[in-house]
């Protein structure tokens, strides 16, 4: 019996040294620990021995079993370790391998121009608001001195949602909203001061062509106070144009008409492209001047219609079409290019403003 244990120990020694993989290990474990294993057979036969022999052989068998368990556990750990290392070596990341270029999103050119203008006015101290695109006839027209049936309403062909509600035809609706609000909240003899820029989409029943669209974007601003003068208006417009186009541009004001301003002006800038050399260029249509926006002093009638006293409160106002500015700045001659979502066109503005 003792010999058998020694033989078994030798056989285990030999076989365990041959273990190269976890599968080998499992085979050896089954062989030496399974139900029919030589060790089990020895243990079963113990009962045929004398008590002293049984104790001795039993002890040796147990020692061998503990030894084998220890050896196999150690082997298993080593093999697991090795397997990990091999896996890591195979999965190695090559940091010098070139990556994939992901397409980079960028703002739409109209939003680029819009943001540029908003930044200029924010720095001039204006409050920037978006306002509502669905507006009542009252705030879109009546409170801006365009009563029902007024011929100047024809200048802005309108989408009516019902007899009293329109898609706003201009961002000037927010002037009426703010003037009314200020009047409602100011106290006796107090002259309110406020500068607001309303920016967003406007809608007109125009036929779309190279320079018109039934939906477009505007910024519309006003400033009111006790001493707002025409000189302030000129300064605001000059600051806007120089920052938007180029430090050298001059502005020229021509008399015009808008129901909400009196006097009203049409604002031209000197051509930033040709600087009126060699009899002008295509952009300024050989005139050296480019028409870019409408402006004026808020009509006294508008102050009264919104509950303010025109004798103590004066104001300046202006309205700018974003598409027109973008077309001029980027040399785009068809407004539709902005709405077609042609990536070849849009990608050209990738680096603008960076
Ligand atoms: N609301 C005018 C339009 O859409 C533009 C405009 C002109 C706005 C003069 C103004 C202004 O605030 O003073 O055609």
UniProtKB/TrEMBL annotation:
One of the GO biological process terms: phenylalanyl-tRNA aminoacylation
GO cellular component, one term: cytoplasm
Entry keywords, A to Z: Aminoacyl-tRNA synthetase, ATP-binding, Cytoplasm, Ligase, Magnesium, Metal-binding, Nucleotide-binding, Protein biosynthesis
Compartmental location: Cytoplasm
Known catalytic reactions: tRNA(Phe) + L-phenylalanine + ATP = L-phenylalanyl-tRNA(Phe) + AMP + diphosphate + H(+)
Domain of life: Bacteria
UniProt cross-references to PROSITE patterns, sorted A to Z: AA_TRNA_LIGASE_II
Binding annotation for Mg(2+): 262
MF annotations from Gene Ontology: ATP binding; magnesium ion binding; phenylalanine-tRNA ligase activity; tRNA binding
Cofactor list: Mg(2+)
InterPro entries: aa-tRNA-synth_II (IPR006195), aa-tRNA-synth_II/BPL/LPL (IPR045864), Phe-tRNA-synth_IIc_asu (IPR004529), Phe-tRNA_ligase_II_N (IPR004188), Phe_tRNA_ligase_alpha1_bac (IPR022911), Phenylalanyl-tRNA_Synthase (IPR002319), tRNA-bd_arm (IPR010978)
Enzyme Commission no: 6.1.1.20
Cofactor remark: Binds 2 magnesium ions per tetramer.
PANTHER family: PHENYLALANINE--TRNA LIGASE, MITOCHONDRIAL, PHENYLALANYL-TRNA SYNTHETASE
Family indicated by similarity: Belongs to the class-II aminoacyl-tRNA synthetase family. Phe-tRNA synthetase alpha subunit type 1 subfamily.
Oligomeric form and interacting partners: Tetramer of two alpha and two beta subunits.
Name of the featured protein: Phenylalanine--tRNA ligase alpha subunit
Classification of source organism: Bacteria, Bacillati, Mycoplasmatota, Mollicutes, Entomoplasmatales
């Amino acid at each position: 019996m003792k010999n058998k244990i020694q033989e078994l120990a030798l056989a285990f020694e030999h076989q365990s040294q041959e273990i190269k993989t976890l599968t080998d290990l499992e085979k050896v474990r089954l062989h030496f620990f399974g139900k029919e294993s030589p060790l089990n057979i020895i243990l079963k036969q113990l009962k045929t021995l004398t008590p002293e022999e049984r104790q001795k052989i039993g002890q040796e068998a147990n020692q061998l079993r503990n030894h084998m368990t220890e050896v196999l556990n150690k082997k298993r750990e080593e093999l697991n370790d090795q397997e990990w290392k091999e896996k890591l070596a195979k999965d190695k990341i090559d940091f010098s391998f070139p990556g994939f270029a992901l397409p980079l999103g960028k703002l739409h050119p109209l939003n680029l121009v819009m943001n540029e203008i908003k930044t200029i006015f924010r720095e001039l101290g204006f409050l920037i608001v978006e306002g509502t695109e669905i507006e009542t006839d009252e705030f879109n027209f009546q409170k801006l001195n365009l009563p029902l049936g007024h011929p100047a309403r024809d200048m802005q062909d309108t989408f009516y949602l019902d007899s009293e509600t329109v898609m706003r035809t201009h961002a000037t609706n927010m002037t009426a909203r703010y003037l009314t609000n200020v009047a409602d909240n100011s106290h006796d003899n107090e002259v309110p001061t406020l500068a607001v820029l309303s920016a967003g989409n406007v809608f007109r029943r125009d036929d779309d062509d190279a320079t018109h669209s039934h939906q477009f974007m505007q910024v519309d601003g006003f400033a009111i106070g006790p001493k707002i003068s025409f000189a302030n208006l000129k300064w605001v417009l000059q600051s806007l144009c120089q920052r938007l186009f180029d430090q050298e541009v001059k502005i020229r004001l021509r008399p015009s008409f808008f129901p909400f301003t009196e006097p009203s002006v049409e604002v031209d800038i000197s051509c930033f492209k040709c600087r009126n050399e060699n009899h002008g260029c295509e952009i300024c249509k050989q005139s050296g001047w480019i028409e870019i926006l409408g402006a004026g002093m808020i009509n006294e009638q508008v102050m009264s219609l919104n509950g303010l006293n025109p004798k103590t409160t004066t104001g300046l106002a202006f309205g700018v079409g974003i598409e027109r500015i973008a077309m001029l700045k980027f040399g785009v001659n068809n407004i539709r290019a902005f709405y077609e979502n042609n990536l070849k066109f849009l990608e050209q503005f990738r680096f603008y403003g960076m």
